[in-house]
């Protein structure tokens, strides 16, 4: 929860709520991009960011993203984070 | 050799380790009179054990593990209040998974869920918001937990709920902030610290200015660090160099991610939604002034504390820690996890007695997982 995980912004899914789809190690989910938006949201497409509990908190470059992901994998945190995303998504689907 | 595999750039790591050994020797620190550096962030604690950095650095350097794991500093009383909220039939209680196994006096959230409470583990407060939209006849309570890396996400979610007029969404706000406990530790006469490695991701949100008092008022160095083991080692070296040179400054080793002024959108959202509590209880550390956040009056409708008349201030009696648990001693660096009588017997990651055993960012769990204190020093 504290370490976050790098993801790449794929598309803007809900401009009004400042939501975008990100790809986190192959898992897609909607995240809030308000904290890294300065200018038109479409400019964020392709950008890498550190994602904390569903919020993009900081832009990073691709190399930083790869390095961070490597450490998170070593710590087992990347797997936990992705598992938490999947579990949350599954819970929402069951609930609907 | 394990060491070479685990570092992305072993040659660079060896160079920094040699420099650390050199500066530690210049300072004249020894195993009997070590330099004590506190890593504040639980993520750093985890990385130090995972990569064995405490074994690779000289005996004259001691890592003291700080209170930077939000799950570990959560007092039992707060867990009891979560359980009480979750037991209300109209409530769907949503929480990060990390909080599920923290022991309360009666039970953990995990046990409450097993007994039939509607508790949902969510990855994000956005998912709690969505549950509120889909379940207009239920009360969705989100457990707001964590330091400055997660406080903005809860604030932005409350703002979103307000914008949509979601009447069935509220937050049980137990967010805490990093700088006040550092001040409390520095004020504690039993605590001897020579410098700090500062949290990277918290600083990405708040910037580096909130640490100025550490250098200015207490004359201690602090270096904000990234998460790569090489980042950590470089930051430790920067702290040691400051000590050797008699400097006390706030330095930023992680400038590629941490701007000195922080993240303005996050800071503005937090200022809009929260105000500091006069004081807040930390497990093992006691009450610390201005160290917790509560929801401002203007968002009262989204405050689970007001909505359900439960939470901080409602029943102020502190709940005592379980018998034989030394979490407070470990938390303040007075003893190592292994010295707790419960370690590995009455308290394990599967059956935690104290919160430091719950999360991989807790010092006890990290010791347990990586055999700290038992391993021979690595080559
Ligand atoms: S071993 Fe368990 S009881 Fe002892 S200090 Fe660590 S978490 Fe607390």
Automatic annotation (TrEMBL), chain A:
Transmembrane segments: none annotated. InterPro entries: Hydgase_assmbl_chp_CS (IPR019812), Hydrogenase_HupF/HypC (IPR001109). It comes from the Bacteria. Belongs to the HupF/HypC family. This is HypC/HybG/HupF family hydrogenase formation chaperone. It comes from Paralimibaculum aggregatum.
Automatic annotation (TrEMBL), chain B:
It holds the Pfam family HypD. Gene3D superfamilies: 6.10.20.100, HypD, alpha/beta domain 1. It comes from the Bacteria. InterPro entries: Hyd_form_HypD, HypD_1, HypD_2_sf. The keyword DNA damage does not apply. Keywords: Iron, Metal-binding. The keyword Lipoprotein does not apply. Belongs to the HypD family. This is Hydrogenase maturation factor.
């Amino acid at each position: 929860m504290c370490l976050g995980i790098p993801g790449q912004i794929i598309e803007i899914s809900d401009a009004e709520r400042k939501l975008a789809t990100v790809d986190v190690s192959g898992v897609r989910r909607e995240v809030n991009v308000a904290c890294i938006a300065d200018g038109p949201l479409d400019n964020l497409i392709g950008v890498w960011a550190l994602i904390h509990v569903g919020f993009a908190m900081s832009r990073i470059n691709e190399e930083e993203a790869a390095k961070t992901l490597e450490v998170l994998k070593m710590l087992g945190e990347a797997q936990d984070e992705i598992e938490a995303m999947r579990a949350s998504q599954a819970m929402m689907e069951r609930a609907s | 050799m394990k060491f070479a595999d685990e570092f992305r750039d072993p040659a660079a790591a060896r160079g920094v380790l040699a420099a650390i050994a050199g500066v530690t020797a210049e300072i004249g620190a020894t195993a009997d009179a070590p330099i004590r550096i506190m890593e504040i962030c639980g993520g750093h604690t985890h990385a130090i054990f995972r990569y064995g950095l405490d074994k690779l650095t000289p005996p004259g350097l001691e890592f003291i593990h700080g209170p930077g794991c939000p799950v570990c500093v959560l007092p039992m009383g707060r867990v009891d209040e979560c359980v009480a909220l979750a037991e209300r039939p109209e409530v769907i209680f949503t929480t990060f998974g990390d909080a599920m196994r923290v022991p309360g006096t009666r039970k953990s959230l995990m046990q409450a869920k097993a007994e039939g409470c509607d508790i949902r583990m969510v990855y994000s407060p956005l998912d709690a918001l969505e549950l509120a939209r889909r379940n207009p006849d239920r009360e969705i309570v989100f457990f707001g937990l964590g330091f400055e890396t997660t406080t903005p996400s809860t604030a932005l979610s409350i703002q979103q709920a307000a914008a949509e007029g979601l009447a069935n969404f509220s937050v049980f706000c137990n967010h805490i902030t990093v700088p006040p406990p550092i001040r409390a530790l520095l004020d504690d006469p039993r605590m001897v610290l020579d410098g700090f490695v500062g949290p990277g991701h918290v600083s990405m949100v708040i910037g580096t200015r909130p640490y100025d008092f550490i250098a200015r008022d207490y004359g201690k160095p602090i270096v904000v660090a990234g998460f790569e083991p090489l980042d950590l080692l470089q930051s430790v070296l920067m702290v040691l160099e400051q000590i050797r040179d008699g400097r006390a400054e706030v330095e930023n080793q992680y400038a590629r991610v941490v701007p000195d002024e922080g993240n303005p959108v996050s800071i503005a959202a937090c200022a809009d939604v929260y105000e500091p509590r006069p004081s807040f209880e930390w497990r093992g550390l006691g009450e610390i002034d201005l160290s917790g956040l509560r929801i401002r009056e203007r968002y009262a409708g989204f405050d689970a504390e007001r909505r359900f008349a439960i939470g901080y201030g409602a029943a102020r009696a502190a709940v005592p820690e379980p018998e034989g648990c030394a979490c407070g001693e470990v938390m303040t660096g007075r003893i190592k996890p292994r010295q707790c009588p419960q370690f590995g017997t009455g308290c394990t990651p599967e059956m935690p007695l104290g919160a430091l055993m719950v999360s991989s960012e807790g010092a006890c769990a990290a010791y347990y997982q990586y055999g700290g204190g038992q391993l021979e020093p690595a080559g």
